[in-house]
Specification:
Elements (H helix, E strand, L loop, with lengths): L1 H29 L4 E5 L25 H17 L3 E6 L3 H11 L4 E3 L10 H17 L5 E6 L1 H8 L8 E7 L2 E8 L3
Parallel strand pairs: 1-4, 2-3, 2-4
Antiparallel strand pairs: 1-5, 5-6
Helix pairs in contact: 2-3
């Protein structure tokens, strides 16, 4: 009985608030005009191989079959639960670009170098952050804007390290941007 109570308490502490946050996130997206950071779907491993080439997917960590299914599910959920996605920008990394295309289709997906992983280079990271902040500040569309990128980029922007396939909804403010919602797809 004691173990059951412990498991129940952990469930209530971790799962129920997450579900509430996810529902609040969908409520924001139903209104449209939101900016969403989306982490690429499941791509097993960490980092990229030493022979990494941005132009060659065979040299990168890529989506698994589970990741492809996850990306399609993300797109289906956006179609069913949110206002139209007006534009999608994606990192050029194959796992991010494939997530974007599987979820939202090729028609509205464009690559944006500033969404590429910026772990190694502080100067490039600062430039990328400024480019993304400018894009966010200038966005005034009626539909939602989705930025498919990497957990470390989102952490640098808002101080939250999301999981694969997680969405962080942000809004501009006088200091840059702040988080206004989250959606956990898993």
């Amino acid at each position: 009985m004691r173990r059951f109570i412990t498991v129940l308490a952990l469930f209530l502490i971790f799962v129920v608030p997450q579900a509430g946050a996810t529902e609040a996130g969908w409520a924001l997206l139903r209104n449209g005009g939101q900016i969403v950071f989306l982490v690429n779907a499941n791509a097993p491993g960490t980092g990229d191989p030493a022979n990494f080439d941005i132009e060659n997917c065979r040299t990168q960590r890529n989506l698994s079959d589970r990741g492809r299914q996850q990306a399609r599910r993300i797109g289906a959920l956006f179609a069913a639960r949110a206002e139209t996605v007006e534009q999608v920008y994606s990192s050029r990394y194959c796992r991010a670009l494939e997530t974007a295309r599987l979820a939202f289709g090729d028609r509205i997906v464009e690559t944006l170098d500033a969404l590429d992983s910026v772990l190694q280079d502080e100067e490039a990271a600062a430039e990328a952050k400024e480019t993304v902040l400018e894009l966010i500040r200038d966005y005034s569309g009626w539909g939602n804007l989705v930025l498919v990128t990497h957990p470390e980029n989102i952490a640098a922007m808002v101080g939250i390290t999301p999981r694969e396939g997680e969405a962080i909804i942000v809004a501009p403010d006088e200091n840059g941007i702040h988080t206004i919602g989250r959606i956990v797809f898993n």
